[in-house]
Amino acid sequence: MNPVVLTNVNKSYRLDAVRVPALRDITLEVRPDRFTVLCGPSGSGKTTLLNLMGCIDRPDSGAIVVANQPVAALSDDALSDFRARNFGFIFQNFNLIPVLSAFENIEYPLRLAGMAPEHRLHRVRELLEAVGLADRADHLPGQLSGGQRQRVAIARALAPAPKLILADEPTANLDTQTGAAIIALMRKMQREQHLSVVFSSHDPNVLAEADDAVFIQDGAITAIERRANRAEAQS
Amino acid sequence: MKNASIAIRNLLRNRRRSVTTLLAMIVGALAVLLFGGFSHMVKNGLETGFVRNSGHLQIQHRGYYLFGSGNPAAYGIHDYARIMEQVKADPQLAPMLTVVTPILQMGGIAGNFAAERSKTVFTTGYVVADQNRLHEWNDYRFPVKPRYSALTDSSPDAAVIGLGVARILELCAPLNIADCPLPQDTSASGGARMPADIAALTGSEPANRPQEQTRLELLVATAEGLPNVGELHVLKAESQAIKELDDVYVAMHLASAQQLVFGRQPHQVTAIILQLQHTDQIPAARERLQQLLDREFGDDKLEIQDFGALNPMYGQTITFFDTIFTFIALLIGVIVLFTVGNTMSTAVVERTVEIGTLRAMGLRRSGVRNLFVLEGVLLGLGGAVLGVAASIGAAALINHAGLYWTPPGRVERVPFTLDVAGANSLLVGCAVGLTIVAALSAWLPARRAARLNIVEALRHV
Predict the structure, then answer these.
(1) CATH of domain A4-96+163-234
(2) For B363, which of A91, A99, A112 is closest by C-beta distance?
């Protein structure tokens, strides 16, 4: 089952009196258990495509099916619940809740998903260990470095065990070394937990890690490069 | 619970703004509660004054209240002693009663022959011991001593008059009253020379009469409609606070008043005063009293007047203070509405990206709305608690500052106290009101936050 399938999707935005096309006739299947990278220059439509995949925006036309569920007919509340169950988001600016500690930030989506407290505790500790921040559990985001914040954001995205992780240029605000560490961490977790990750970036290092690479230019897909799943290839 | 924790943390995030908002609410609560406490004190003070003078209920002859004022002959209660006995003996009424006492009120003309002055007056005859007990009523525990009648332990012909009566009858000097001017021109003075025929009733010509400094003659109509004059010894002139009353007030012993009006005929009274333990017993006491009168004295054409009807000024004063209180409360409510609304609107703008993130993670619109409304409610609760505490503290300071004042309609100066700590309904009402206003203020920004477009919120800089 493909985590996301987009068929003939179009999206435009109104800029004053002018409609600006953002995506044109996008048809794409994101394959399961793959590290998919959306690649293209700034303004090419990568973020818009991620937003549509993550059901935080709706297309002007075309169909989006997430985990076999057509999402067009879902109400706002149903779509919110759907997002809580099926997606993990990682943002360029980390977007952690500043008044919550690292532990609480990771715990928050589990609360939204209605997980029991004892399970939440176990899951959050597990994730903090996995991202190497067990000793920073009580720190507020403002007390963490950029790399540590993004690690918390990754743990938060992974917390509800979503079907799809959507990461919008998560290394753009990090230095090269930290960015590389973050990519390595995400790649490692994607492999270990058999996750489907869609990663938007124009960083060649990220592209090098991709199982599938989707090239976008001016709102249209110019090429899709399906590479062998490295885990499968290795095995 | 987690939402409350997040809301508190968000409020603490911008301490200065939250403190400013809280201060606005505290000042608002202070204004409302201190005025409410003042208003409470005035109401209780007025009630105490009226209850001490006229009791909670009065049994009167039917029509006396509207048509019979000062006419004891036509509107007297002849069987009053038996009625009082029955009332005092009633097992339901007795536990509620503090005093049951008769009074006789009548119009007349008071004259000071030594000065050749006369004045129409309104005379009340009462039982002095009962009157003193009426004045001991202090259900609200005002720190003032009862004002006992100057007729206490006096001779049967003793009287107390209003300062105005003393002034007009030129009795100020004999009574040693300071600041009591004599008329410059006798023709323009309020008093009038007593007609010769009326003066003749006293049995002596003014010019030939030796001056008895504090004597006055009281001319009244007897039950048969004949004029009768009684000689009274004025013990004291007392201010009645209201000039119109001051200019007509004469008080004397009930027995003497009855003797003057009814002579050898059976004595009557114009009202039986019933004073209760507490004002809120009026409905129950009135209902029981009505049953008793209907059953035992159905032929006597009696009616019951309650505290409110007997003292229309009380109701007017309450309405006046309630109107001002409502105005102040509304004004404060609007200020709090805008202050909290502004605080929450700023918070929504500042946290736009956070709202987008929460929504992307799956928080419903209602979840975002509830979060901001909860912050407003907590802000309101904080303001309410601190405002109530500040008001109780401020009232305690004022109450212990040793301030005195003379309330409207009263003569004596009383301690200036604000009844805030004991006004539970006022405190709870203010706290609940502030919280509700704060919640309402937060609702609009919260609704706006909930309706934010997720993509635009995430892009917000």
Answers:
(1) 3.40.50.300
(2) A112
